[in-house]
Amino acid sequence: MQSDNCLRCGGQMWFDPVQQALVCRSCGEPPAYVAENTAIDCPNCGAELTLITGSRQAKCEFCDGTFAMLHDREDCELTGDIPDNHKYIIPFAVDKESYQKGMITWLAGEKLAPPDIFDKIGIIRSDACYIPYYYCVANFNGHYTASIGYDRTETYVTMVRQRDSRGNFRNVPVTRTRVVTDWKPYSAPIRGKSANLCEASRSTQDLRHKTYSATPPRWQAGIENSSHGLHEPMNVQIDRKQPLTAENESKFTAGYKILPCEDHYSKVYDKEKIHRDIHNEISQTSPGDRIKDINFQGDIVPDYFLVYRPSWQTVYSYGEKICYATSDATDHRGAGRHYGTRPVDKEKKERLRRLRHWLFISLAVVSASFVGTILVAESDILPLFALVMILGLLSSAIAGVFNIHGYFTVVKAGRASNTAQSERYLATPSMIFERRSAKADPTI
């Protein structure tokens, strides 16, 4: 086993994303190794070690040390059928300071953020970890049959009611065109792949649900979810990925937690998505203008991967509200890509809601007035009524413009204020991240 503590000064070893090397947090020196052994006693204090399920790490509950196990042992039963050459780890590329600055910028970008958000935030915990992901590549190969449609344009004559110069209505023939589709049977070979990704751990789900549940119900309306895109597809062919060997794991995970796999790898096999991708591939490669009645016959062979992906996670409080933030740490450009929940100003949120409400009313009145004006122009209704319609159209349009202007004024002013307040914290992120919250961690 290899200790995560420096053998020179006793400080904690960690993988530095900036240097892309293993160094000591205290003295900054590279690691000094001890010989491997098969014992499961802590080399620091002699207490019995506890293996962390689903990883090659062990933890000492007595001295709180973590260790990388370098000898072979059985994998977690949830991932045991995935071949070793399909297991990867992506090293950290975002250091602590970059993440903290990115989170401050992310909080300042919330259009409904409270004006005192940076003064009242308390950090419950903020740490870095590796989250396991299952990745499935399903290769399909076979034939398909379908009906292929070819569009053509034809002309036809129809009778249209029109008003003549004297104001009388009569039916006149008008030549028009329309698109007609001719359908033909078709068959062809098809091959391709469908990829799917899912988290093997439940950490992100627990962050979202447990932090939200820890907030009293009357304060939950003051939290906005900003998790769109959190589970966007990940390409397993990432240049920086490394094979999940004992040597790589002991190097890249030093100083970080590895979250265990909690679901079976078969969870990532999504039959409906695979069939949708097959249909999309057929639709894109088939001839003709349209396609229907697709029937695929062939083989679908799934290939499974396990990828440990680095992530920064923070649980924080604002008053009675408990929120979380997480950031992808695979690329330094991802330091600004944060997801999670953010506190919002309820008064500002209500004001924007009212502006949107009146904007929709104005648009509805504009639409109704526009349709009414057209109907008046095509009929013999009194000119006074037509004038009322036109005035209603103009007044509603003006009201809609003012509502739009008011909405974006509130949003712009809020973001400008938050950005100005965040500048001093961006210079010294520790002013926020060393401020401890009195709230307990709801995810424990």
Describe the protein's architecture and organization.
The structure is a single chain. With 444 residues, the chain is α+β, with helices and mostly antiparallel strands. Among the domains are: 1-73, no CATH class; 138-192, no CATH class; 348-427. The protein is 30% helix and 33% strand. It has eight helices and 15 strands. It has helices spanning 96-108, 117-120, 203-214, 246-252, 271-285, 346-377, 383-427, 430-433, and strands at 2-3, 13-16, 21-24, 49-51, 57-60, 66-68, 87-89, 121-163, 169-199, 223-225, 242-243, 257-258, 290-318, 321-328, 338-343. Strands 7, 8, 9, 10, 11, 12, 13, 14 and 15 form a nine-stranded mixed β-sheet that branches. The protein has a four-stranded antiparallel β-sheet with strand order 1-6-5-4. It has a two-stranded antiparallel ribbon with strand order 2-3. A hairpin with a 5-residue loop joins strand 8 and strand 9. The longest helix is centred in the last third of the chain and has 45 residues, at 383-427. It is flat, with a radius of gyration of 31 Å. The chain starts with a strand and ends in an 11-residue tail after the last helix.
